[in-house]
Amino acid sequence: MGISRREAMIAGAAMAGSCATVVNGATVKIEGGIAGPIEDAVRRAIQDHACPGVQIAIARRGTPLLSKGYGAANLETRTLVDERSIFRIGSLTKQFTAAAVIRLAADGRVNLDDPVARHLPFMGKLRSVSLLELMHQTAGLHSDDDSPFCLGGPETLKSQVKLAQEVADQAKPFDFEPGTAWLYSNANYVVLGAVVEAVAGKPYAEAMSAMVFEPLGLTLTAADRSGAVIAGRVSGYTPVEGRPDLFDHAAFIEVAYAGGAGALRSTALDLCLWHEALLSDRLFDKRWVELMMKPGRLRDGRLSGANRFSPQDASYGEVQYACGLLVSPPFDRDRTIIHYGAIDGFAAVLETYVDLGLTVAILCNGDTGPDLPFRSVRRLVKSKLVPGLT
User: Fold this and answer.
1) 121 and 65, same structural domain?
2) To the nearest whole percent, how much of the chain has pLDDT over 90?
3) What pTM did the predictor assign?
4) 86 forms bridges with which residues in the sheet?
5) Are residues 101 and 229 in the same domain?
6) Three-state secondary structure along 239-284?
7) Coil, strand, or helix at residue 322?
8) Cβ-count burial 156-181 (b if 16+ within 10 Å, e if not)
9) What span, in angstroms and rounded, lies between the C-alpha atoms of 267 and 271?
10) Structure confidence at residue 149 (pLDDT)
11) Residue 226 lies in a domain
């Protein structure tokens, strides 16, 4: 069942208004005349049926400049998106998982050059890969993203260790010889989620909360589970093909099975605070932060992007993959870290200008598509808030 575009537009219009918002009781105004153009861009996306709702936060060194929701969180109840609405964030999860593994290394509980089999013995039957190669997406583990592994109810929930065992048991566990190429693979991060479970001695959700979310005060960020009742959680939607006036509920998945690759939920403001905490050395000291943002390399010493396994990945250009983060080329005037996220019914992007401490997070409750406001909002932030750019 869908809803008419007119009704979605009404929901979006209800969230328009002033260029200020309320964050923890304080009025926050954004600089540079950017709030109005951002609202225009979001309104266009909602009117173009890209998604029912959007949440955006912009912060500088942890101070919010904008934190606001637009449009509908749930089309059936006509609930609106606000700044505390909770979205699934898909592959933005990967940087949190990488950070948890690095935290284990900083605490002396793992070595990032360890073969994964040291912590997950069942991986010993495969060719050896290191924890760092998993994080850099150079391990070569095959990800069967068309498999129905996310289907099922709460009674069939599997641990991340069990899911990693299924990765190891694939008929074709590798796409290429480990360390020889780069290929984005969810399987690499499912296995890393299993390492977190095994070393921490507790389920992925509990380990992430204890090691990352609670210490950093990320109160609205957590590992999601479809059966859980979560106040303020947004519903995900899929546009109906050929019917620009309709949405369907996104296909059901058991999001917990996405684990270290994509199971987290959060808010745009929490994501901004996450990057600030990371870059302020609050989770681990600076040398570990630098390692997390250092581009991965192949076993022959070349940058991982020098040999992308899939020809279509040439579109990455000079951008390199680090630990759950895409990092800008060294010749860029302003260093950035960025990642996108997508999971049924949701799409997200999180980007930080590292030297400026300027972060933008955009969350949508619709499938990834060209009409989402990611590009337009990122361009506005770059042109209005990054000095020296027009």
Assistant:
1) no
2) 84
3) 0.90
4) 233
5) yes
6) ECCCCCCCEEECCCCCHHHHHHHHCEEECHHHHHHHHHHHHCCCCC
7) coil
8) eebbbbebbbebbeeeebbbbebbeb
9) 6
10) 45
11) yes
CB 183 within 8 A of CB 224: no
User: What parts of the chain have a pLDDT lower than 70?
Assistant: 1-32, 145-156, 389-390
List the one residue out of 38, 72, 68, 77 whose CA is nearest residue 53.
72
Instruction: Give the list of residues 6+ apart from residue 194 with CB closer than 8 angstroms, or none.
Output: 120, 159, 160, 161, 163, 164, 204, 259, 260
Cα gap 359→354, rounded to integer Å: 8
DSSP string, 55-103: EEEEEETTEEEEEEEEEEEETTTTEEP-TT-BEE-GGGHHHHHHHHHHH
| One domain for residues 257 and 110 | yes
**337 occurs within a structural domain:** no
- The tens digit of pLDDT for each residue in 281-320 reads 999 999 999 999 999 999 999 999 999 999 999 999 999 9
Does any domain span residue 385? yes
Contact present, 134 and 110 (Cβ < 8 Å): no
Does residue 245 lie in a domain region? no
pLDDT, one tens digit per residue, over 239-257 is 998 787 799 999 999 999 9
Running DSSP on this structure, what letter comes out for residue 127? P
Domain with 105 in it: what CATH number?
3.40.710.10
pLDDT at 13: 30
User: In the chain, what is the greatest distance between 2 CA atoms, to the nearest angstrom?
Assistant: 60
Range of the domain at 381: 1-81+375-390
Asked whether the beta carbons of 256 and 263 are under 8 A apart, the reply is yes
